[in-house]
Amino acid sequence: MILVVEDNPANMKLVRDLLRANGHRVVESTTGEEALDALKFIRPNLILMDIQLPGMDGLEAARRLRDDPATRDIPVVALTAHVMKGDEVRAKMSGCVGYIPKPIDTVEFPRLVAGYLKPGAGTVSQWKAGA
Ligand code: MN
After folding, report:
1. How far is the CA of 8 from the centre of ligand 1 (A)?
2. Is 44 helix (H, G, I), strand (E, B) or coil?
């Protein structure tokens, strides 16, 4: 099960369709607050987190997940339209295991997701390889 946190309906639809086409179950949140709430009840294998969200941004949500022992072990991958070096570093510092750039590359996306679902994907080497 993959939790997608994304406020843009078109992006959400694209991500949902791609994940389902690859056999994943998808749970959706449109805000960080909603995602944190949902995580009291569900245990996804991976969280895809848009960075720019209304209210709490994706990096703050990622920090809270990292700081909570109940959610610390769930890998969070940032979805970001900003592929500048600084954003990559900020995402990493917020506890994300990596990032997937937007606009979503429909061919590359399933491959990246599969990589992040592998055991041990949340490592520094994965960051370098995934970048
Ligand atoms: Mn957004």
Report:
1. 6
2. coil
Q: Report how far ligand 1's centroid is from the alpha carbon of 123 (Å).
A: 26
- d(C-alpha 69, C-alpha 106), whole Å: 33
Distance CA 128, CA 131 (A): 5
Give the tens place of pLDDT for each residue, 1-22.
999 999 999 999 999 999 999 9
The pLDDT tens digits of the residues spanning 112-129 come to: 999 999 877 754 444 554
Show Cβ contacts of residue 39 under 8 Å, excluding neighbours closer than 6 positions: 3, 65, 70, 71, 74
10 Å CB burial of residue 106 (0-12, 13-18, 19+) is exposed
Residue list, CB under 5 A from ion ligand 1: 7, 50, 52
* Rounded to 5°, angle at Cα 69 from 97 and 120: 35
Distance CA 86, CA 116 (A): 21
